[in-house]
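Appendix B, Record 12. Input sequence as logged:
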Amino acid sequence: MTGGKNKTFSFRTLRVFSFVLMAPVTIAPFAAQAQTSADNARVEYVFKRGDTLVALAEKYMRKQSDYVTVQRLNRISNPRLIPVGKTVSIPFRLLKYRSSEASLSAFRGNVSIARRGQTLKPAKGLEISEGSRLATAAGSFLTLQLEDGSRISMPSNSKMRITRLRHILLTDSVDYELAVDSGRMRSKVTPFDKKHDRYRVRTPVAVSAVRGTDYRTRVDGETGTAFSETVEGAVDVAAGDSIDDAQVVAVPAGTGAAATTTGALETAELLAPPEILDPAKVQSEETLSFAVAPRDAASAHRIIISSDAGFVDIVAEKLVDSPVIDLPAIEDGRYFAKATAVSKDGFEGMPAAYSFKRQLSTLSGGAGQGDFGYRFKWSGAGKGKRLYRFQLLSGDKKSLPVVDEAGLTEDVITLSDLPDGEYFWRIGVTQYSSDPSDKEIFQKWTDFEKLTVAG
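Logged structural output:
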């Protein structure tokens, strides 16, 4: 592995799971679901004065007769006579819950949301419930918002299922589980305050767990390897179906874990954030372009563009194997860019975020001899008021202009009676934003062009 000190953990017939614990969400009636390994986990309940196992089952278990299972597991002789302070272990699968929901806080492009065979039309604020399937096509993105402020973001070419969105009544805690079938997902989880809050992200070969963190999950489409990369907080990665019964590997901030289809589990330090060269420059050309300082340890770089600092409303992204990253045109405005470097092992590194301004302002020109002299003409694109400036210099680019016309509103100027000689000329534009709240003025020049006048 590269990018730091690595540790390798190998397990036979391995499936890896990572778990993230979260806070409460909306209330809805519970519905029966197929049992998963998460159901085998248990809650520890401490009996209080007046509690009986029968009464507990009636109020908090799916069936009143479930008390028999709890009685047998805990070797309780009399379900109606349990000492105050006794700790009883109860499987999650027996507990009543209220269904919870997430909401669609942002989306762009071709986004698919389906539940129970029905396709839902994406709309901001749309409620997303347990059992939903979500997919993003190329150049498409979505973000889900949970009630406690936690966010789940899906970039392009990703598929995810929401297998659990539950609020457990007995513990007043949440039980969330998401399955990433392909592509990537980012979990920005608000720190938990309850012992039994659970948030898990599954992949075909892995599952992860945290109590408040910012981390990424990715399934490599070619190899099937599942990556968990921790940006903030810590993630626990375990082999097997349950984090409670397996060997746990801690993945703190700045490190990642990779589970392969062969059962290998590896960890590595993530690459440091890349350096974007001149990050504050105004992106004025037809397409966006970012230059990254090259490093030998990086095999690729990714840029994500968002309209907000929290990267909820993602508008574009690109992964390239070169230090120059070009992206399609976007509307004028203030944006945020997040850059990461990908190591040769496939781990995506720590992010660096920058703010920048996008203001389309292109400019090009040409010169030729006309009926009345030399005709200089230019063109360009950009919203808002545009004023042009024409400069003509004689003999040297560093000399003072012999012609300097500012405040031009037309796109052409004709000069007659130019003496023979060598000249250099250029066009400048002063552009005002079409946004009334943006008072900044943007200026740019074309490169000098050479013009030779001979009689």
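Confidence is low (pLDDT under 50) at residues 1-36.
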